[in-house]
Specification:
The complex is a heterodimer of chains A (591) and B (171). By secondary structure, chain A is α+β, with helices and mostly antiparallel strands. Chain A is globular, with a radius of gyration of 28 Å. The N terminus of chain B is likely disordered. The chains are: A alpha+beta (591), B alpha+beta (171). At the A-B interface, strand 18, strand 19, helix 17 and helix 18 of A face strand 4 of B.
Chain lengths: 591, 171
């Protein structure tokens, strides 16, 4: 089969497409054909060299790997499996189940084929275009210099077939369903070439190289985990992009498994397992609680005396939870590696069954968040999340791919943060400015008032309902708990400006230390509630286009808040300060 | 803009208050809005009370709600009018809003991505408009409520010109 110049992978043959019939939905489209079509699969240089300038806007469209034809029907069927299995069992005698099974399979295969035929993408010098959909066609395009991250994921079926899913992250944070920019079913080599092309494209030269801090900054205590050195050259299908040497910053240690039960990840895994068990039970009409092994266990359990029953129940729950949490940790973070590739990208790879490789452009990295859920903190552990435009932080941050370090020793987390940001360890682990007695009073007031409210409501309910008094007397135990929480929340509060970064820390149940570059701050919010006004406090919030989008310095004395804002972004806030306010000329420390 | 604006902010002495007040008509608009929402709550209570034959407890609850809603409709708009202020310079948009709790917002003009003006049905009755400037941060829109139409249009033009001057993708 004759191939266009320099296309090595048979899975990505440029096909002529129908005329463009809809305008770009994102951004102003540049489809006038001025830029020569640039098929990505290894032919970027070849096409440019042979000068295929007559390629118009309607050429150079690429398809997903034909192997992806298998992926969609099978994943759809697997998703339907509980239902199909239930139908087969229910109607095995009448044959209706078989018919339904066939209908479902045919439907899945047809949608798979339609998806493959209708999904096409194209890469020009300036933009990446994506078309998909048969009846309602989606046309998406994104400017290449707006691409912040490239995320390559593969679930087990993907891996079996040698394909993967590529998600392209831009700064846009409000994607509606169906508008996310992803290609599901690229061959592995195409995905790799695409990743390299998109993140080391024309914009790479213009990007400011982020300074690389010396490895000596890492605390000596955990110094051995950072292993500088060259990794294996990547298997690139792209001769133009020389194999990039990678500095491995950190890789998973088996000992870190001890942190697995200390985060909520285990609960999430448990929830998913219970959910699928219920779904299976519903679909197949098999009541799991009445199956003989389960009944046997319950019978044995009921034979025990009460105290032993409680003990056995708690022990079983604990062991089960630890097992599930550890399995979850292994599944998500197996073979975790954080690698710096060249001067401008970070690469995170991980996963046991489903794998994920996230590439983050360092020029878009605005900071790092070190988070310590209470239990993890008690075990001197922490985890790291990247604050970058294009990757949202929040619930499911692990799904979103911004994880820089799974739950690991705190010293490792601090060293990784310092290394990635190119700053000294002091920024990531040093002392923080306290917020003072008013902030402490407010913490206690809020926590105790909340507890008092609950106690009052419970007391009222028990008197009205003539319940036993021990119920509301028992809630009195909330008071010391609230006080302890308040004390810890105050201990967590802190901020500091150092090396051009705003460091802020808050929270008790999950304590977060956020380190954000001051040049990434694109606005300020100052909030003062009526109660805060009486105490002379404000909450100062820096807004940014990265991560959580806003980072707060909570309950800080008003003048201190203005001093922080003025020191971080002087030109922005100075015109709005009262003339009589005296601020230190420069608060930012350098070290 | 005005010399009044150069004085220290009475609410937060380190800052100075933004130069401009919003339109005086905003007080009437806020009063009307508070009255309508208060009346709808009262109506719901009266309907609920009617089904149970206007017991003494319901009558007390309705009287208390009416007093509270009336106080809110009288106090909130005037208090709010004293808090809401705004100012635009060549470099930044600066606003103060709220009443019981107060928010100050500062957004650099160079980081503003979209500017739009919206007039709800209620605002149209009172000849008002609000202006929203969004930045690249999902947490960053700056809203100015209760401007009169002419001021809002003028502000839109001014912001459009100012944002057009700065290149870059504003992240």
């Amino acid at each position: 089969m004759p191939m266009p110049a320099g296309v090595p992978a048979p899975s990505s043959v440029p096909v002529p497409s129908s005329p463009a019939d809809a305008a770009d939905e994102i951004g102003s489209g540049n489809s006038d054909g001025a830029a020569p079509g640039l098929p990505v699969a290894g032919s970027a240089t070849a096409a440019a060299a042979t000068g295929t300038a007559d390629w118009g806007a309607d050429t150079g469209w690429l398809r997903l790997s034909p192997r992806s034809l298998v992926v969609r029907p099978v994943t759809d069927l697997v998703r339907l499996l509980p239902v199909v299995a239930g139908l087969l069992i229910l109607h095995s005698r009448t044959g209706v189940g078989l018919i339904w099974g066939i209908v479902a399979s045919v439907g899945a295969i047809v949608t798979g084929v339609v998806h493959w035929f209708t999904t096409r993408y194209r890469i020009t010098d300036e933009r990446v275009y994506l078309r998909r959909g048969l009846l309602s066609q989606k046309n998406l395009s994104v400017a290449r210099d707006r691409i912040r991250t490239v995320d390559v994921t593969a679930h087990p079926l993907h891996r079996l077939l040698g394909v993967c899913r590529v998600s392209i992250g831009t700064g846009r944070n409000d994607f509606a369903a169906g508008e996310s920019f992803h290609l599901d079913g690229l061959s592995r080599s195409d995905a790799e070439s695409l990743r390299v092309l998109l993140l080391t494209g024309p914009q790479a030269a213009a990007q400011v190289a982020v300074g690389q801090a010396g490895l000596g900054d890492a605390p000596a205590a955990g110094g051995s985990f950072i292993q500088p050195g060259l990794t294996k050259p990547l298997a690139l299908g792209l001769p133009a992009a020389a194999p990039q040497p990678g500095d491995e910053l950190v890789r998973l240690r088996l000992g870190w498994l001890r942190y697995a039960p200390l985060t909520m990840t285990g609960l999430v895994v448990l929830g998913v397992m219970v959910g699928s068990a219920v779904q299976f039970s519903n679909a197949t009409n098999v009541n799991l609680a009445t199956t003989s092994p389960v009944r046997q266990i319950f019978a044995d359990f009921e034979a025990l005396p009460l105290a032993r029953r409680i003990l056995a129940g708690v022990a079983a729950a604990l062991v089960g939870y630890v097992l599930v949490a550890t399995a979850g940790y292994v599944g998500v973070f197996w073979k975790f590696r954080l690698v710096r590739q060249g001067a401008d990208t970070l690469r995170v790879t991980r996963g046991l069954l489903s794998t994920r490789a996230t590439t983050i452009s360092l020029a878009r990295l605005r900071g790092v968040e070190i988070s310590e859920p209470l239990l993890l903190r008690a075990a001197r552990g922490a985890r790291c999340i990247a604050i970058t435009t294009g990757l949202l932080v929040g619930r499911g941050a692990e799904r979103e791919g911004s994880v820089l370090l799974p739950p690991a020793p705190r010293a490792v987390a601090q060293a990784v943060a310092a290394e990635v940001l190119g700053v000294s360890g002091e920024t990531c682990s040093g002392w923080l400015e306290r917020h003072g007695p008013a902030a402490r009073r407010r913490r206690y007031l809020r926590a105790l008032a909340g507890a008092a409210l609950i106690i009052a409501v419970v007391a009222w309910l028990t008197t009205v309902g003539h319940g036993p008094a021990w119920i509301w007397l028992g809630t009195l135990a909330l008071l010391p708990i609230a006080a302890a929480l308040a004390a810890d929340r105050y201990r967590s509060l802190g901020h500091r400006l150092i090396n051009g970064r705003l460091v802020t820390r808050t929270g008790s149940l999950v304590r977060r230390r956020s380190i954000i570059a001051t040049e990434a701050i694109i606005g300020w919010r100052i909030h003062q509630s009526w109660f805060q006004r009486r105490q002379g406090l404000v909450t100062l919030t820096a807004t940014t286009a990265a991560g959580r989008q806003h980072y707060a310095v909570q309950d800080v004395p008003a003048t201190q808040a203005l001093a922080i804002a003025a020191a971080a972004t002087g030109d922005l806030i100075r015109p709005f300060l009262a003339a009589e306010l005296d601020l230190p000329a420069e608060l930012t420390e350098q070290d | 803009m005005t010399t009044e604006g150069m004085a220290a902010d009475a609410l937060l002495p380190g800052l100075r208050a933004p130069g401009n007040r919003v339109s005086r008509r905003a007080v009437s608009y806020w009063t009307a809005r508070a009255a309508v929402s208060g009346a709808s709550v009262l109506l719901a209570e009266v309907v609920a009370a009617a089904t149970s034959g206007f017991s003494a407890a319901w009558r007390t609850a309705i009287a208390a709600t009416a007093a509270l809603m009336a106080a809110h409709a009288v106090i909130m708009p005037r208090w709010r009018f004293r808090v809401h202020r705004w100012e635009v310079t060549d470099e930044a948009l600066y606003t103060r809003s709220g009443w019981f709790s107060v928010h100050w917002r500062i957004a650099p003009i160079s980081r503003i991505q979209t500017i739009d003006s919206h007039r709800s049905f209620g605002e149209r009755i009172f000849g008002l408009a609000n202006v929203t400037a969004t930045t690249a941060s999902a947490a960053g829109p700056v809203r100015i409520h209760g401007l009169d139409r002419a001021t809002a249009d003028e502000l839109l033009d001014r912001l459009a010109v100012a944002t057009g001057r700065t290149p870059g993708d504003a992240t």
